[in-house]
């Protein structure tokens, strides 16, 4: 049986110990904050943008910690990954007023076809969301200007 509680726990995954994962999540969060802060010195005081910096954590908790697990219980891993990835992509419709049509379609497609399936697959294989959080942070650091992506 799938335990939701186990997905929220840090656990050794591959060669990454629990402490290494915690250090990575913390370091990546700090890098993302500094990246945003240095890019726009006033940004750190802007609450919505601070929330966006924390997006990898809350989005992975919601989409992989709650939605994916609920779908896995009902439909199995493959369908759960597909449906949760589609829902993750649709989540970016929230940016409809901030992006032009092309950038919005690009963002939704990227979330649906890459970030969603990869982080969902990792969550099903590792039984933890934290590897996905790390990958999500890396994505946001490496591609910060790909139309306000993910």
Largest sheet: none
The gyration radius over C-alpha positions equals 15 Å
Average pLDDT rating? 84
Query: Distance between the terminal alpha carbons, to the nearest Å?
Result: 31 Å
Helicity, in percent? Answer: over 70%
Please tell me what the overall shape is. flat
Number of helix segments?
A: 7
Low-confidence stretches: none
SSE pattern: HHHHHHH
Oligomer description: single chain
Strand portion: under 5%
DSSP E strands, number: 0
- Judged by helices, strands and strand pairing, the structural class is mainly alpha
Structurally, the number of domains stands at 1
Describe this structure in words.
This protein has 150 residues and is mostly helical. It is built from seven helices and no strands. The protein is flat.
What are the SSEs and their pairings?
Layout: H1 4-8, H2 18-39, H3 47-53, H4 55-75, H5 77-91, H6 101-126, H7 130-142
Helix pairs in contact: 2-7, 4-5, 4-7, 5-6, 6-7
Task: Considering the chains and any ligands shown, give keywords for the structure.
mainly alpha; single chain; flat; about 150 residues
Please give a quick description of this structure.
The chain is 73% helix and 0% strand. It is mostly helical. It has one domain (17-142).
């Amino acid at each position: 049986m799938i335990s939701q509680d186990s997905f929220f726990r840090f656990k050794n995954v591959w060669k990454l110990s629990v402490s290494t994962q915690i250090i990575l999540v913390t370091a990546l969060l700090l890098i993302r904050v500094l990246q945003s802060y240095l890019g726009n010195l006033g940004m750190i005081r802007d609450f919505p943008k601070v929330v966006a910096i924390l997006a990898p954590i809350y989005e992975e908790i919601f989409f992989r910690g709650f939605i994916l697990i609920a779908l896995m219980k009902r439909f199995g891993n493959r369908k759960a990954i597909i449906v949760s990835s589609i829902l993750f992509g649709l989540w970016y419709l929230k940016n409809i007023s901030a992006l032009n049509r092309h950038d919005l379609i690009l963002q939704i497609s990227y979330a649906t076809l890459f970030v969603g399936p990869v982080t969902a697959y990792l969550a099903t294989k590792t039984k933890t969301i934290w590897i996905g959080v790390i990958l999500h942070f890396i994505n946001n650091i490496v591609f910060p200007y790909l139309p306000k992506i993910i």
